[in-house]
Design brief:
- The structure is a single chain.
- With 484 residues, this protein is mainly alpha-helical.
- The protein has a domain of 280 residues: Serine Threonine Protein Phosphatase 5, Tetratricopeptide repeat.
- The protein has a two-stranded antiparallel sheet.
- A hairpin with a 5-residue loop joins strand 1 and strand 2.
- Helix 4 runs antiparallel to helix 5 and helix 11 packs antiparallel against helix 12.
- The longest helix has 39 residues.
């Protein structure tokens, strides 16, 4: 996975929560729903890798979150509906509960309608901070950032230390060019409510987004100290440890989190990434598959799952996964690139060519697409295209890649090998065509001579003219046999 997507959270009932990225997408539930009712959930940090620097050294963006149990209660019933800092849902016999459940059931197919129902739930129970928060996340899913900000702020009016709202509002502010406001929001929360886990969680996730691993780890540890069941903070620590190469420690952290939330797909994604880094590809594949089954539309699960399926030679399965990924991220060049690779692996070369071109349209700096497109042209006949022209296009793509990219030693060696062998193929094909052209020209010239025509010298003689005189005999040297 190349980058971490920006995320917002929905904490909802019946094992469903939703995260908002640039185009909001669903994320898995928090703790498993008990048989007697919905589970209390709060956001968890994304199981995506810590983002690598973008071109030019720009940091990645904040990861999405899933849901976990809230911190220990600090106050009693806020509304008379049963809501406090530990129990964020009202009683089941209330209108607020009914509206919330209805909203949770429609949030993926109709986020704006869900937003309105969440607002209705919050209006029916003014202390229902989780409903205001979910209204904000649904607004982001509907592309209405202004409404999202309004609803997040309303959630924080009810509960100022609410980590999910702090985190998502900070991400939203930073994403709209108000980075100083985002930092001020978190600093104020830490100063005023530093005894709660939520502000430290928000601070750790902001630090993780900026690749400040030291601060991210410190703040995540602080959140766990204040709430030992804080799965989002555990996940942040796992991501930090993996980024630092402390893989055994990362695995221990994510396994502890999974013991609390076995149904959290984001945790399974993180576990898969750790296992993959440890060289346990098969176990990593199982972890990614588990995450995808728990949450079929979680792009952060589908991307590593599809990529590893490709690497392991499961082309058709990878294609199915990566088609879904490209639909979830229709403006993502890397998603189109992965789809193109899957199409090429399944021998749908014309579609692969189109997908590579689309990837470059979406991201002109996606140098890898030039490399893979070059290999596609060189290695495969595509729809009856002229072979020489196809090889020349392949070399042109590889030359473009060579001029723009900074490949590692292995890729560089492969590039040199492909260019050298393809240049030789082009030279051989060019010579073959020249020979063929010459032979055709000779055959055409022969075809112009009538069948049965006399030799050229005879054909040049004038009809009816006397035969040419025979040349005189050669002189015989003296002493020859004829003198006798």
């Amino acid at each position: 996975m190349s980058m971490v997507t920006r995320g917002a959270l929905l904490a909802v009932v019946t094992s469903l929560s939703v995260s908002c990225a640039s185009t909001p997408e669903p994320v898995p539930p928090g703790r498993d729903t008990p048989a007697d009712g919905p589970a209390a959930m709060e956001p968890a940090a994304a199981a995506s890798p810590v983002p690598p620097p973008a071109p030019g050294g720009a940091p990645g963006v904040a990861p999405p979150m899933a849901a976990v149990a809230p911190p220990a209660p600090k106050s009693g019933d806020r509304t008379g509906d049963g809501i406090d800092d530990e129990n964020w849902l009202p009683r089941k016999d209330t209108a607020a509960y009914t509206a919330f459940v209805d909203a949770a059931g429609m949030v993926r197919r109709d986020p704006r309608g869900a937003m309105n129902k969440f607002v209705s739930a919050a209006t029916n129970s003014p202390g229902f901070y989780a409903a205001w928060f979910n209204a904000g996340a649904a607004a982001e899913a509907a592309g209405d950032r202004s409404a999202a900000e309004q609803h997040y702020r309303q959630a924080l009016k009810v509960r100022p230390d609410y980590g999910p709202a702090l985190t998502n509002l900070a991400v939203l502010l930073a994403g709209t060019g108000r980075d100083a406001d985002a930092q001020r929001l978190i600093d104020d929360a830490l100063r005023q409510h530093g005894d709660a886990a939520g502000p430290h969680l928000a601070s750790s996730m902001r630090a993780l987004a900026g690749r400040d691993l030291v601060t991210a780890e410190r703040e995540a540890r602080e959140a766990v100290q204040k709430d030992e069941r804080n799965v989002p903070a555990m996940l942040v620590m796992a991501q930090v440890f993996r980024a630092q190469g402390r893989l055994d420690t990362a695995r221990f952290a994510v396994d502890n989190a999974l013991a609390l939330e076995p149904g959290n797909a984001l945790l399974h994604v993180e576990r898969g990434l750790v296992l993959q880094a440890q060289g346990e590809a098969q176990e990593a594949l199982f972890a990614f598959e588990r995450a995808a089954r728990l949450h079929p539309t979680l792009a952060d699960a589908l991307e590593p799952y599809g990529r590893l399926l490709l690497e392991r030679g499961f082309g058709p399965d990878a294609l199915q996964v990566l088609r879904t990924l490209s639909q979830l991220r229709p403006t993502s060049g890397p998603a189109q690139l992965l789809l193109a690779n899957a199409l090429r692996a399944t021998k749908d070369y014309p579609a692969a060519e189109a997908a590579y071109r689309r990837a470059l349209e979406l991201d002109q700096y996606l140098d890898e697409a030039h490399f893979n497109l070059g290999l596609l042209y060189i290695d495969n006949a595509i729809g009856g295209a002229d072979e020489l022209a196809r090889l020349q296009r392949g070399v042109a793509e590889l030359r473009t890649y060579e001029s723009k990219a900074r490949p590692d030693a292995t890729t560089k060696a492969r590039l040199v090998e492909y260019l050298d062998s393809t240049d030789k193929r082009i030279a051989r094909e060019t010579k073959r065509r020249e020979r063929d052209q010459k032979r055709k020209a000779e055959d055409a010239k022969k075809a112009e001579t009538p069948v049965g025509a006399p030799p050229a010298a005879a054909a040049a003689a004038t009809p009816g003219a006397p035969p040419a005189a025979s040349p005189p005999p050669a002189p015989v040297p003296p002493g020859s046999a004829d003198d006798k």
